[in-house]
Structure formats: structure tokens, C-alpha cells
Amino acid sequence: MRLILLGPPGAGKGTQAKHLVAKHGLVQLSTGDMLRAAVKAGTSIGLRAKDAMARGELVPDDLVVAIISARIDQPDARNGFILDGFPRTVPQAHALDQMLKEKGLKLDAVIELKVDEEILLSRIKKRVAEAAARGAALRPDDDPEVLARRLLAYREYTAPLVAYYRAQSVLREVDGMAPVGQVAAAIDRGLNMVPGSQSSPKPSPKEAGPLLGPE
Ligand code: AMP
Questions:
Q1: Catalytic site residue 127?
Q2: Residue 42 belongs to some domain of the structure
Q3: 173 occurs within a structural domain
Q4: What stretch of H or E contains 54?
Q5: 152-177 in b/e burial notation, b at 16+ Cβ within 10 A?
Q6: Residue 193: CATH number of its domain
Q7: Measuring CA to CA, which residue among 141, 124, 127 is closest to residue 36?
């Protein structure tokens, strides 16, 4: 299965990706994690990405497209993968379509974690303040101002992907504000509707609605 997790920063994409890794044996491909590792290692990619990341801005499309293309070719991605944080712009989505076509691969589903941005921002601010109070290590972009910029970048560049993937009939909308376990269950129900998925192939009429919330 090849999936995309779509949603603003703090929506729980990483947490849900880990659940999907454990349940379906997929690999999680997070461009954010890859870029942070590149910054830490001081590679040329890291040097190009560092400042934009610290400001909460997106890094250039060509950079992330090249990283993802190389990563998809690795043997561990052969059984399927979850893209977490990629694509983040319409040109990246086009590049992904092209890349998958060239590699003879198909995208099965795009899961959108729908969240209330105001509540999200206050939750993230609280989490950052608590981590700082504990003396825990913070990411350079774990800063309320930077977070607000990351949310703006999401709205401007990434949110249009919802319509893009809806038009391809691969979008599954899930209520991301529910407790983690309920979000995971809603995602599973959404994936059961994916043609060719191994688990219960027939969704109930209730599950066939556009928004898969907690039961
Ligand atoms: P994340 O951990 O996914 O929130 O990503 C952290 C930061 O890495 C983002 O704020 C961007 O600066 C950069 N980044 C990650 N993925 C992408 C992407 N697909 N396109 C552009 N920038 C990205």
C-alpha cells in the first residue's frame, strides 16, 4: 500500500504513520525527519534546507523531490510506504505523480487529518512551553511564531492538495481532533475502502460518508 498523510503541523501525522507502520508493515518516509538528519550531518542538502526550516518556511521543491525519489528506490520501501510531510505543494504532487508513473507504482490513498487550526496552535504552544519548562530539547522550529508561519505555509501551499487528490478519487478525510486511538481506527476504516485492501473490503453505508470520525 502507498499512502500519503496530509495535515498541518501538529495534526498527528507522525503518530498515525507509526501506527500504520506497525499494522501494515509499511515504511514511514518523513521529509521533515530526512531533512533534519541532513542538517545534523551537515550535508549539502542540509546546508540548503537549514535556514528555511528554522524560519518555518518550505524548502525548495527540487530538494525534497530528489530525496523522496531516491528513498522510494530503497529495498525497504518495496512493500509500500507512507509519505509523511510530502508532497507539500502542488508542483511536488505533480512530481510525485510523474515519479510513481516512471517507477510503475500506484498511490492507493491520501489520508487527510482534518483539524481545527486555532485549537491546534494553542495545543502546540502548550506542548512547547511544557517541554521548555522540563528542560527538554526543542527543535529550532518549535517556537510559537515559527509554528504560526508553518501553519500559514500549510494553508497557502499544502491545503490545495486536498482538492488535487479529491479529483483523483484517492482522498479519505478523517477527523484528526479525536483521541489518537479513534483517529487510527477511522484511518483503518478509510483504508478498508481502498480497492484491493486485504482487510474487510466492504464498507458499511455509515463508513462510506466523506468524513470518518470517531464512532
Ligand atoms: P515537518 O517535520 O514535516 O513539519 O517538516 C519540518 C520542516 O522541513 C518544514 O517546516 C519545512 O521547512 C521542511 N519540509 C519538510 N518536508 C517538506 C516538503 N515536502 N517541502 C518543503 N519543505 C519541507
A1: yes
A2: no
A3: yes
A4: helix 44-55
A5: ebbeebbeebbebbeeeebbbbbebb
A6: 3.40.50.300
A7: 141
Look at residue 63 and tell me if it is in a domain: no
Instruction: Give the residue among 81, 141, 114, 106 at the shortest CA–CA distance from 6.
Output: 114
Active site residue 150: yes
**Cα 95 from Cα 66, distance rounded (Å):** 10
At 157-205, the pLDDT tens digits run: 999 999 999 999 999 999 999 999 999 999 999 888 777 665 433 444 4
Q: Is residue 184 part of a domain?
A: yes
List residues near ligand 1 (CB under 6 A): 9, 31-32, 35, 52-53, 56-59, 64, 85-86, 88, 92, 141, 150
CA–CA dist 10, 120 (Å, integer): 7
* Whole-number pLDDT of residue 214: 44
> In percent, how much of the chain has pLDDT > 70?
90
Distance CA 104, CA 100 (A): 6
How far apart CA 188 and CA 211 sit, in angstroms, is 13
Known catalytic residue: 149?
A: no
For the chain, how many residues are written? 215
Sheet with strand 27-30: strands edge to edge? 27-30, 81-84, 2-6, 109-114, 171-175, 211-212
Contact in structure between 212 and 175 (CB atoms under 8 Å): yes
Range of the domain at 156: 2-26+79-208
Domain total of the chain: 1
Q: What is the pTM of this model?
A: 0.86
Residues 123, 199: Cα–Cα separation, whole Å: 34
